């Protein structure tokens, strides 16, 4: 059996994950709107041997537009531009199951998979929030359970479309003029509660068969969905205990779907605030903290939690948060509630805790210290890899590649170079069969 | 006043526009699925100084799948990959108003416009055909008039979204932490018959303000729509008289919308079957003709006309076609009806006439002869430029650039090099204002 190795995803966000990144002197806010910035990030990640890069997304303007550095590119087009300047690194785009037709979505990802030579991944989100719904002719978003019910049907449609052409459907036989073997292309005839889709897809089967399926919801509904569909899971935890519990829970659900424990890779987020000394790292963390605009941070946390904290004094501890009752990002809500219960922070302290990683663990320290964090979580049942969220970009990603990766490699935790060409190969995941052989044998 | 010059668009399609292109020995069918082929085509077009490249599209598998060389890439992603290897040539993608949410579409084109530095264009289609509708949870397509009614509302939504951020909305003021001036971002509050869209778009205003709006329907509904919205029109004509009539008709409609005659560029299609002698060109035309699979060609013409010709003997003249009555591509239907009336062809002869350009004019001959055709149409009120449809790719495009363009330049008909950087600049079209100044003065 091969040695177990880390999987690393570079979660890219503008000029850095810290919400005040664009105000820090080492970044250049003009890069936010420049495709070459993102192409450079993809190249840095590929030079480091990252399994993939990843872009989050939403379909609305966020809370406090005045203080938010965002809103230029759409992920699939931006990742396609990154595909054009790289050859190995995987490319994971967030698209919602709520507001795009499954036929279109299946086709975009097949197209990105063709363009990139098998490097496409889809981060599946269901999209809470009425503001998003109101951009799509709906008064509000469906509730949490219905969103996941829709997502489940959506996945059945999309995967059937990806399998509507056999891998060997294209003959390209010049002699006879037969370009396609029509017995190797099928309608899907989906008639469901939310969608009716005839098919076939107007795309030949893509290099990976199915682009990698990624998911990030960690609620009960989210975990049930992930156990059925996901192949990589991004998740946010503040403590190794919480991450271990999530890891064991998710892996334990897989057998019920006839899936092996290795068929899903769990990647918690980590925000590495790096310095060559602890003092230097602490100074950077302080600098970033001081650049937070409190009003903006309060708006973001309020949006995350689904209720308004803008009236709460900054330097007073928060009241305990309710146990349930949000129709939003439920697992992120639970994370903040636990944090408030555990640490009893003032609102200002909470903003500082969340400003760097919106709930993901922030590790401030030397490269050794970051590597220790990664090793501990990786070797004690909390992670198969990490979603690396550099607070400043590109500098934080470059530093991670230059200083943390060599330590991880020295410790035998991360591979020296790519061993395959597709995203599935990087993650050690099988290529799904097209299902035509079963069909043929049944005839 | 500046000299009037040709506008040239390279209409790209697989390994060539001729339906049997992939069977001809100068093409390589493996290129159909290789993004580098399309990137090479974009580079050739840019080296020639073409205003733009263009991809058609549909949202279903076409008629005779067995004999059709198609179905790999989705246009927006493919054009993004082409954007990454070029810097001047415009990039026009076909997307239907029928099967994508306007919020998503506005965002994709804004993103492509950002990525390409202002080179995005949208070819607006309304999509006939029940097979397409059945991939999107509908039993069938709306009728012709309703499709255009929907398209009109769709354009109002999309253009309002593109104008929902002022050009100068982004402040990026590090000192104060204000990234955006919130007074320069507005909701659109659209409440229409088919769509309700709150806005604003989650994208800053793109380099062109609005990506170039292109349209290709030449029916009555199509022309009315074009007169209101289009800035470039692709159109198919078999005779210069027909093209002149269309040109005068369309330009005559513009004043009614307060638009100048120069605000829309009319580009008929031309399929140049080139040879260094007439004999060589005729030989190539014959070779391509002989590679047509009649059953496939009959299926395609039947699909185009909306009724089944598969029972008609190949070598018998066609009966007159009905005057009206199709719920499909009406103007293309009329073109074929006129051709049948004028020339009384057998079915086989009709297939040969349509095999090269699906109704667009095919010119077989030397570079001089192609240039004569272009000059005649351009200088006698039939065209502002051409949609160049090489029968074989990349060879036919390379030959056009190497042999026809020098003649057009010698004759002073085509500019020597790009004079701007955006697609709007290439076509000599103004950049739309963001509308915020009017608003401010009204306050």
In brief:
Chains A, B: Pfam families: Bac_luciferase (PF00296). Chain A has 443 residues and is of the alpha/beta class. Chain A is 39% helix and 14% strand.
Protein architecture, described:
2 copies of one chain form a homodimer. By secondary structure, chain A is of the alpha/beta class. Chain A has one domain (7-163, 198-278, 359-442): Alpha-Beta Barrel (TIM Barrel). Helices cover 39% and strands 14% of the residues of chain A. The first copy, chain A, is built from 15 helices and 13 strands. Chain A has helices at residues 35-48, 75-83, 102-116, 130-133, 144-162, 220-229, 240-254, 278-290, 294-305, 330-343, 347-355, 367-379, 395-410, 423-426, 436-442, and strands at residues 7-12, 52-55, 90-96, 120-125, 170-173, 178-180, 190-191, 196-197, 212-215, 232-235, 265-274, 361-365, 385-388. In chain A, the strands form 3 sheets. Chain A has an 8-stranded parallel beta barrel, surrounded by 7 helices. A two-stranded antiparallel sheet of chain A has the order 5-6. In chain A, strands 7-8 form a two-stranded antiparallel sheet. In chain A, strand 5 (170-173) and strand 6 (178-180) form a beta hairpin. In chain A, helix 12 crosses helix 13. Chain A is globular. The two termini of chain A are 38 Å apart. Chains A and B meet through helix 2, helix 3, strand 6 and strand 8 of A and helix 2, helix 3, strand 6 and strand 8 of B. Chains A, B: Belongs to the NtaA/SnaA/DszA monooxygenase family. Chains A, B: This is FMN-dependent oxidoreductase (Nitrilotriacetate monooxygenase family). Chains A, B: Keywords: Flavoprotein, FMN, Monooxygenase, Oxidoreductase. Chains A, B: It comes from Actinokineospora auranticolor. Chains A, B: Pfam families: Bac_luciferase.
């Amino acid at each position: 059996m091969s040695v177990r190795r880390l999987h690393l995803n570079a979660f890219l966000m503008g000029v850095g994950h810290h919400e005040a990144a664009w105000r820090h002197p080492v970044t250049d806010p003009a890069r936010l709107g420049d495709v070459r910035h993102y192409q450079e990030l993809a190249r840095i990640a590929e030079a480091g041997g990252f399994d993939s890069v990843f872009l989050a997304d939403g379909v609305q303007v966020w809370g406090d537009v005045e203080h938010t550095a965002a809103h230029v590119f759409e992920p699939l087009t931006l990742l396609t531009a990154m595909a054009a300047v790289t050859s190995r690194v995987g490319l994971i785009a967030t698209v919602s199951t709520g507001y795009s037709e499954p036929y279109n979505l299946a086709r975009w990802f097949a197209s990105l998979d063709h363009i990139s030579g098998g490097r496409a991944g889809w981060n599946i989100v269901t999209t809470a929030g009425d503001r998003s719904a109101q951009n799509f002719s709906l008064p509000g978003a469906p509730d949490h359970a219905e969103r996941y019910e829709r997502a489940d049907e959506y996945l059945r449609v999309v995967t059937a479309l990806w399998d509507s052409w056999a891998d060997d459907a294209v003959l390209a036989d010049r002699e006879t003029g037969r370009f396609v073997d029509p017995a190797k292309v099928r309608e899907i005839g989906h008639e469901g509660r939310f969608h009716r889709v005839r098919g076939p897809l107007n795309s030949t089967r893509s290099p990976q068969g199915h682009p990698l399926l990624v998911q990030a919801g960690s609620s009960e509904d989210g975990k049930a969905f992930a156990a059925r569909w996901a192949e990589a899971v991004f998740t946010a935890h503040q403590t190794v205990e919480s991450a271990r519990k999530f890891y064991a829970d998710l892996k334990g659900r897989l057998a019920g779907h006839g899936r092996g424990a290795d068929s899903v890779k769990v990647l918690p987020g980590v925000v590495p605030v790096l310095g060559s000394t602890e003092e230097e790292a602490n100074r950077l963390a302080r600098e970033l903290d001081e650049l937070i605009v409190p009003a903006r941070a309060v708006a973001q946390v309020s949006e995350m939690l689904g209720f308004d904290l803008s009236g709460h004094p900054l330097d007073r501890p928060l009241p305990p948060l309710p146990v349930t009752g949000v129709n939003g990002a439920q697992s992120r809500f639970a994370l903040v509630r636990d944090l408030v219960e555990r640490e009893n922070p003032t609102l200002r302290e909470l903003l500082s805790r969340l400003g760097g990683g919106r709930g993901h663990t922030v590790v401030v320290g030397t490269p050794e210290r970051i590597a220790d964090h990664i090793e501990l979580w990786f070797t004690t049942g909390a992670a198969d890899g990490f979603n690396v969220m550099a607070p400043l970009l590109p500098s934080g990603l470059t530093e991670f590649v230059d200083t943390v990766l060599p330590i991880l490699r020295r410790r035998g935790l991360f591979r020296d170079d790519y061993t395959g060409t597709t995203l599935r190969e990087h993650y050690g995941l099988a290529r799904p069969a097209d299902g035509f052989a079963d069909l043929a044998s049944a005839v």
